[in-house]
Specification:
The chain is α/β, with parallel strands linked by helices. Helix content is about 35%, strand content about 25%. The chain has one domain (about 5-90, about 150-250): 3-Layer(aba) Sandwich (Rossmann fold), CATH 3.40.50.300. The chain binds adenosine-5'-triphosphate (ATP) and magnesium ion.
């Protein structure tokens, strides 16, 4: 078993003349919960796109559990056990929430069985729907869900694939504060079941509660790799990110 679940080395990506990521390199160990932070447009979602195979990097290397996955398709990477959720999830019109969860075929016994043994698939899906406060919308078309509900469904769909690692792109955006607290507990349980998490998030309370480590990007470069409590004493992070966040809160 490799020490590092995910390794990024000298990863770069540009769109035309827009150099979005430059020389990004860091490792994530088995069982870590890492926050990926940074100002709007600094390249966080793009980095998740490269890690999960939505887009290939221009240069650099990405390894998952010791295997070079650079440029592999999203399907292949997902089969290897790395899945992601999207910042703005799009859902099909013709499938209900429950149908989608059935279709997101689990490769082995089903995620809930990590918590509760001997459950059949239906019970497992019921458990996920309850955990994610989606039971009452199970028969609705997935496309008709609210933005926050689509975020929750994305997490449930990711879990159905029995991942070893999940990358979450702003999981709490548009989610009610009470449910955010619930989500912290849920993600802790997911992590306790052995699943490594990389979480793009702007909510600092969520980050402090959940993450053991933070990687901060600014203009496509890693400017800090530290614990959540070290963020506020890092001048570059305060200048590039936290200062802005405070100003935005003051304006709001
Ligand atoms: N498919 C694409 N084609 C062209 N440009 C893109 C593409 N994807 C991202 N970009 C550009 O890359 C830059 C970084 O975007 P990205 O979505 O990664 O930022 P982000 O850090 O996730 O921001 P936010 O916090 O607002 O979600 C932006 O300038 C964006 O316009
Ligand atoms: Mg983004």
């Amino acid at each position: 078993m490799p020490d590092h679940v995910l390794t990024l080395a000298q990863v770069a990506k540009s769109f035309g003349a827009n150099q979005v990521l430059s020389n990004v390199g860091f490792d994530i160990g088995q069982g870590e919960i890492v926050g990926l932070l940074g100002p709007n447009g600094c390249g966080k979602s793009t980095l998740l796109n490269l890690i999960s195979g939505v887009l290939p990097p221009d240069t650099g290397r990405i390894a998952f559990r010791g295997e070079d996955v650079t440029g592999m398709t999203m399907d292949r990477i997902a089969r290897n056990g790395l899945v992601r959720t999207f910042q703005l999830p799009s859902m099909p019109r013709r499938m209900t929430v429950a149908e989608m969860l059935h279709a997101a075929a689990a490769r082995k016994a089903g995620f809930s069985s990590l918590f509760r043994r001997d459950l059949d698939e239906r019970e497992e899906i019921d458990g996920l729907l309850t955990d994610l406060a989606l039971s009452h919308v199970r028969h609705l078309p997935a496309a008709s869900l609210s933005g926050g509900q689509k975020k929750l469904l994305s997490i449930a769909l990711a879990l159905r694939t029995l991942p070893r690692m999940i990358c979450l792109d702003e999981p709490t955006a548009g989610v009610h504060p009470n449910l955010r607290e619930h989500m912290i507990g849920l993600l802790r349980r997911i992590n306790a079941a052995g699943i490594t998490l990389l979480i793009v998030e702007h909510d600092m309370h969520f980050i402090r509660e959940l993450c053991t480590r933070c990687v901060v990007l600014d203009r496509g470069r890693v400017i800090a790799d530290c614990t959540p409590s070290e963020l506020t004493s890092n001048e570059e992070v305060v200048e590039a990110y936290l200062g802005n966040a405070r100003q935005k809160r003051a304006i709001a």
